[in-house]
Design brief:
With about 220 residues, the chain is an all-alpha fold. The protein has helices spanning about 5-15, 25-40, 45-55, 60-65, 70-85, 90-100, 115-125, 130-140, 165-175, 185-215; strands spanning about 150, 155.
């Protein structure tokens, strides 16, 4: 990929980049991580991978404004249009679009190509460990989700009962994503970070629960 082509795609990404939990630095981290993983995979089309990484979240703002929109579906559509309108061949645009379409954790679509699997893993690594907790808390603030909910005025919902809280997001996604990696290197990187997230969740739950235990003394 030439510098000029990279800049063209990067500028479009920057134009679409939005809120802080999925900002341009998230995109760059995913790109750097994906390039690292690619070194341990065979038959990787680097141009497709780079393009898909740069464009994978270009519809995040649309989803933030309207939760009914799937940013993976909308992003795949936007990427295809952008690429074909800027002189990229249709097969290339389609492969990039397919990578974006299947990169989301909340998605029944499975990544098929090597590039799609690497993108999926690199994106999930960025929500693993301490970094994943930090980004999830930022996103919870952006979407006005509380840390936790209370059952019967005193019992803390630890996230096992699904609701719109950080604890529920941890149980649904952050705790479960380590079984969803497609590359050995991606899984290896994520597992190194796993305990950081577990410790934070357990400590946070313990501290919150302690405060509600003191309620009984009032």
């Amino acid at each position: 990929m030439t510098k000029e082509i990279f800049t063209l795609i990067e500028n479009y990404m920057l134009k679409c980049a939005g809120h802080s939990s999925h900002d341009k630095e998230h995109i760059y981290r995913v790109l750097y991580t994906a390039r690292h993983i690619a070194q341990f995979c065979e038959n990787v089309d680097t141009d497709i991978l780079i393009t898909a990484c740069l464009l994978h979240d270009i519809a995040r703002e649309e989803q933030l404004k309207n939760p009914k929109i799937c940013h993976a579906e909308k992003g795949a559509e936007k990427a295809y249009i952008f690429l074909t309108e800027n002189g990229f061949e249709e097969p290339f645009a389609k492969k990039v679009s397919d990578c974006i379409l299947t990169h989301r954790f909340r998605n029944d679509r499975q990544p098929q190509s090597t590039e799609a699997k690497i993108l999926f893993d690199a994106d999930k690594i960025d929500v693993a460990g301490a970094l994943g907790v930090a980004r999830t808390l930022i996103y919870s603030g952006e979407t006005k989700r509380p840390l936790y909910s209370v059952i019967n005025d005193s019992e803390i919902n630890d996230g096992t009962i699904k609701d719109e809280t950080f604890f529920a997001e941890y149980k649904f996604k952050l705790e479960r994503l380590y079984d969803r990696f497609y590359t050995e290197k991606g899984r290896e990187i994520a597992l190194k970070r796993k305990k950081h997230a577990e410790d934070f969740y357990n400590n946070l739950l313990s501290e919150i629960s302690e405060a509600y235990d003191w309620k009984e003394t009032l």
